[in-house]
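Interim report to the steering committee. The following record documents the input for RND family efflux transporter MFP subunit (352 residues).
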Amino acid sequence: MPFQPDHIVHFPTLASIRPPRVTRVVAWLVFFAIAVVVAILILVPWVQTSAGAGQVAALDPEDRVQDVTALVPGRVERWYVRDGDLVKRGDPIAKITDNDPDLLARLAAERAQVLAEIAAAEQAMAVSQIDVGRSAQLLAEGLAARRDYEATQIKVADQRAKLAEARAKLTRVDVTLNRQSAQLVRAPRDGRIQSINAAAGATLVSAGDPLATLAPEAPVRVVELMVDGRDVAIIRPGRPVRLAFEGWPAIQFSGWPSVAQGMFDGRVRSIDPSAQTTGLFRVLVEPMPGKPGWPGAGFVRLGGKVRGWIQGETVSVGYELWRQLNDFPLEFRRPADDAKGPGPDPVVKVKK
C-alpha cells in the first residue's frame, strides 16, 4: 500500500480518488498563470496617458488660413491670380472698380475746388487780421469806435471758422480718394491662393466681402488636442506627449511609450483656462526639443487630424486596471515646487 498523508487516511473516499496526471498538470499551470498575472499586476509599470484628438494648426495667427477681403465697394474687374498660385506680400490679387466710372474724376475736381476755398479763406483771414490791427490803432488814437474794433475781431473769427470747415472738407475728400485708390487688392503676406470667390466677379461686392482665401507657406506648426475635463488637472506645460498623425502609419502602446512605432514626440505648450462649447479643453502641443522632428509640411498639413496621448504618472498595471474599472481620473501628484501648498491664510488684524 503506497504512503498516504494522515489527513487522507482518515477519508477513505478521498483516498480512493486518483485525479489524472493531466488534471494535476493543468492545475499547476493555472496556479502558475495566476501567480504570473498577479506579479504583472503588481510589479509591471504602466504610464498613464490622457488621450485626445485634434488637428494641426499654426502657432502664429498670421500663419493661419485667412480671407483676403475687398477694401471698397464695387465689382471685380480683373483677377490676377488663380487657385493654387504662389504670391508674395504686395502682389495684386484683384482689381475692383466703382459702380460710377467717373467717381475718381469728380473727386479730383472736388478736391481742387476745396483747395481754392482754403486759399480764399486764408487770404480773407489775413486781410481781416490787418483790419483788426488798423482798427486797434485808430481806437487808440480816438478816431474809431470800439464797436468797429470788435466787429473786425468777429470777422476774423468767422474767417477762421470758414477756413477750418474748408480744411475738414479737404480731409474728407482725401479719405475718400485714399479709399478709392485701394481698389487694387494685394496679398497681405507670402502664401498660396487656396480658393477664389468666383461669384464676386459677377456680382457687386461690399467692403469686407471675401475675395480669396490665402494659406501661408511654411508656418510654425502646433497641435491642438481636445482632452476631457476629468484629466485636465494633471496636465501642465512641459508634459511629454506622443502624437500619431493622420496618414502616417503608427502603432501605439499608451502604457509603454518605448514600444510604440511611428509616433512623434511633443510637449504641452499651454492649456486653455476655459472649456470649449463641447465641454473639452484645448491643449496646445509643440515639438519636443532634442527629439526627431515632425513630418514635413508636405506630409502633415494644416488642419490634418492628430491623435495624441499626454503622458502622466507611472503606476502599476493593477492600479491602472482598477482605475479604469472605477472610471477614476489619472493619478495626481503635485510638482516639487507646489508640494508645500499655498500655505495658511493670512491673518487680518482689525484695528479697534
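Residues 337-352 have pLDDT under 50 and may be disordered. The committee is asked to note this result when reviewing the revised timeline.
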